[in-house]
Task: structure prediction
Amino acid sequence: LKDDPVRQQELAAYFTHCKLQTPHLRLAYFSAMTVCYKSKNMATAAHFARSLLDTNPTIESQARTARQVMQAAERNMTDATTLNYDFRNPFVICGSTYVPIYKGQKDVACPYCTARFVPSQEGNICSVCDLAVIGADASGLLCSASQVR
Result:
């Protein structure tokens, strides 16, 4: 990803939405803040700095860096590049393309593992479980004739 800084920023931003323990979440915020700041995406870096400070970081150097990023962003609250990321809109990540599927957008799911995918992945084998066809209608495990639809 060194050749694609925009994608690097997007993946770092998506990672901050994982359900992590607080110390690990702080590292995710710090990483995303640093990557966005280096790419001159000040508004996005300020968001991650604010989120990091909201977790009350125990490492003073992280808190100091976050405050410095906030001060720098206040002078120039713009983004140099446009990211496929909106922290205000809830989303899930596509299991094969790793792009966000925002609330209200069409998506398809794997009938076995329920991973979500963009509609263009329908009909492919699920890249998460490697067992089912994405978007297929599956009835699940049937143990008796009374369970048949």
Q: What stands out?
A: The radius of gyration is 20 Å. The chain has a mean pLDDT of 91. DSSP finds four helices and four strands in the chain. The beta strands are 91-93, 100-102, 108-109, 116-117.
